[in-house]
Please model this.
Amino acid sequence: MQQERTAAAGISANLPKIIFIAAAASTLLPAIQPPVALLLGLALAQTTGNPFAAVTPRITHWLLQLAVIGLGFGMNMHTAIKAGSDGFLLTIASIAGTLVLGTLLGKILGIEKNTAHLISCGTAICGGSAIAAISPVIRATDRQISVALGIIFLLNSLALFIFPVIGHWLNLSQQQFGIWSAIAIHDTSSVVGAANKYGEEALQIATTVKLSRALWILPVAFLSAFLFKNGQHKIKIPWFIGIFLLVVVLNTWIPALATAGPYLVFSAKTALSLTLFLIGTGLTRQTFSSLGWQPLLQGILLWVAISAGALMAVISLIK
Model:
């Protein structure tokens, strides 16, 4: 009897870990699409919690990078160049406009300068990656970083569901949706998830435009260092962008890769589902309650502005 009680107590104590591992494993099944994986992680965050919270951010970081690299095996360099050039002018205009509007909203709403700048950079460029790169440059505190990341991840989660619905409602083409989602959705993970749901061509275009957009971290970081009078920190540029570009080139010029390409792309999409699940497990009630209404309002207004502006530009310029 004592042994049975001890065993039952052990199972009860480890139940959150068992549930977490089972849920994570389920996202590897083809039936679990990225939006569903995100919802599953979000539900877990509100109930049993994440017993591996100390390590999942690092795992998420690496998984996303590997997933993006894997998607490169399904792309062609000529298509990638065309997609990048189509979104180039829109990228410059949207980044500049978002940073200016974000600064003005930060002052109007009375938000800390660092927090407002991080939210603006995350919205303008590539979400969490931009925040991670810019935060040491402006000497942001842990709380400022967490608030900015929380808002970006929250809006990313909404975009994953909202954007495909709007795209189909407006009958956007694959090219139009790919460029729009790459410009208007903050983080690479949600861009890829939304575009993947819309179509293969949209996925290729969105991934290329989003990663070319991420290169703007460098000039924005230098501008931030100048504005915040801080040139003492190194600027971290996501290394996986270079590998992604190399993979696209190799996939274009080495026919042998065409055989393995579909399997690698499938593995990358599976990794993306697991990534979004892990992101969802970090969106706890504590995360939501710590945001504050002013930074959240800034993030929402910026997101609506860039989404509406990019959508109008895409519809009018790209047929």
About this structure: The mean pLDDT is 79. The chain has one domain: 2-317. Residues 176 and 317 are 9 Å apart (CA to CA). The radius of gyration is 20 Å.
